[in-house]
Backbone:
């Protein structure tokens, strides 16, 4: 392995020292009272708002460097921090403080015939490594959720967000140092640590630190998740990557279908629950595509553009719909309209488009003969994140919901609801796309395990 050049605190003793400190402090975190944890989280929320201007200044450096490197608009949107977004992050942290503490919860309790009291009790995982791309909000979300669940966390954020992450982690560590009710020698600030090097070798080393880290959680692109999965000797919980589909059945209500499509695709394109591929039953394709083309320019999300990558059948229908829309518009206003307000671009799809998570104003479109073909397409291309069907037929919907293998499956609703808070779970650390140890929105309980507590009165096994 190449020699790693560490910066900041890492120069002193290397990346493994982060693990040593995290392991030591995790013992203290596991014993913190709910009141103490909530107080710390509320102090973090207050500090975020108080230091918003400094955080925005640090983020501005990341944004400028990202623009120089040619990051896409979607990635820049993920990276951006404004005072409004910081206020929203602080509000989310306060919601975490209000959530029930899972640690210490008795999941089951029974007394055996020999009078042994057997209880299964929730406990923290211990030390979490969080590896993610350029989303500085994840720095706070992961820190707050780890603290609430009694875990230490080592953060390895994307290099594009390094300045933002440094500012955020220093703020959190300052709060932890000043927290009341803890002894200075516990070094509570080590509960949240940041890997500050940009070197990828540091990530590879982090993934092999089994003696210090209990679980690693990658959140980001398929490439990042594959790298973590292929190189980790630590248990991995995968989150993030997706290729999201919505299938429009032949009997779909266009009054539901079009607003759902607009919401899934345009509400926020840079998140993992955004629609990537629209599958359309051939019987309803002409009506749906005509309605969609008409609705796009006046979409309620102020989206500036959309690139449609369509199969041959859909391409022809969209061309006709565009011509009809333009004729109708010209007839209404005599040709005096501003086409620059919304840019709709049409391209022919390639095979790769149907396996792509775009994270941008791009939508792949494909017509299918029936539900069977839609299901086969999803089985081939899905990353098991979020999939949806729009239909008025319950039998068709139930078959889709039962057969599609994904963390979240939808009937007549937007995939944008794949979110911990939206589903009533509270803030999330990500969306797990695997089946062990948690699936779907990955909230507080997912950051805990359990242990068996057996209480006796002198019993011995015969």
Residues:
């Amino acid at each position: 392995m190449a020699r790693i050049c560490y910066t900041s605190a890492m120069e002193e003793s290397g990346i493994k020292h982060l693990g040593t400190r995290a392991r030591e402090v995790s013992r203290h975190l596991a014993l913190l009272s709910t009141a103490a944890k909530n107080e710390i989280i509320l102090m973090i929320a207050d500090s975020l708002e108080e230091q918003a201007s400094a955080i925005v200044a640090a983020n501005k450096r990341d944004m400028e460097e990202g623009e120089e490197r040619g990051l896409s608009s979607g990635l820049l949107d993920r990276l951006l921090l404004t005072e409004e977004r910081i206020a929203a992050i602080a509000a989310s942290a306060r919601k975490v403080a209000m959530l029930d503490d899972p640690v210490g919860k008795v999941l089951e309790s029974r007394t055996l015939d020999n009078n042994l009291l057997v209880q299964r009790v929730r406990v923290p995982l211990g030390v979490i490594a969080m590896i993610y791309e350029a989303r500085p909000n994840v720095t706070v979300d992961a820190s707050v959720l780890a603290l609430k669940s009694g875990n230490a966390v080592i953060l390895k954020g994307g290099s594009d967000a390094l300045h933002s992450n440094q500012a955020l982690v220093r703020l959190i560590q300052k709060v932890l140092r000043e927290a009341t009710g803890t002894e200075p020698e516990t070094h509570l600030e080590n509960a949240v640590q940041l890997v500050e090097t940009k070197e990828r070798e540091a990530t590879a080393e982090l993934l092999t630190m089994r003696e210090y880290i209990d679980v690693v959680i990658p959140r980001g692109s398929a490439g990042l998740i594959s790298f973590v999965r292929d190189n980790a000797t630590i248990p991995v919980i995968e989150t993030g990557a997706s290729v999201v589909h919505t299938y429009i059945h032949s009997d779909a209500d266009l009054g539901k279908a079009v607003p759902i499509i607009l919401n899934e695709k345009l509400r926020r394109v840079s998140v993992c629950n955004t629609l990537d591929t629209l599958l359309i039953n051939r019987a309803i394709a002409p009506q749906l595509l005509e309605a969609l083309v008409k609705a796009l320019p006046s979409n309620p999300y102020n989206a500036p553009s959309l690139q449609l990558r369509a199969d041959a059948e859909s391409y022809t229908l969209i061309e006709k719909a565009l011509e009809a829309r333009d004729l109708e518009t010209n007839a209404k206003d005599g040709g005096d309209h501003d086409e620059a307000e919304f840019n709709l671009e049409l391209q022919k799809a390639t095979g790769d488009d149907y396996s792509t998570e775009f994270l941008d104003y791009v939508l792949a479109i494909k017509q299918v003969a029936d539900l069977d073909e839609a299901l086969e397409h999803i089985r081939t291309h899905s990353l098991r994140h979020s999939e949806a069907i729009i239909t008025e037929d319950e039998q068709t919907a139930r078959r889709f919901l039962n057969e599609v293998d994904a963390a979240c499956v939808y009937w007549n609703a937007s995939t944008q609801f794949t979110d911990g808070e939206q589903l009533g779970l509270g803030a999330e650390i990500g969306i797990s796309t695997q089946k062990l140890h948690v699936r779907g929105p990955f909230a507080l309980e997912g950051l805990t395990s359990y242990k068996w507590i057996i209480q006796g009165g002198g019993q011995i096994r015969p």
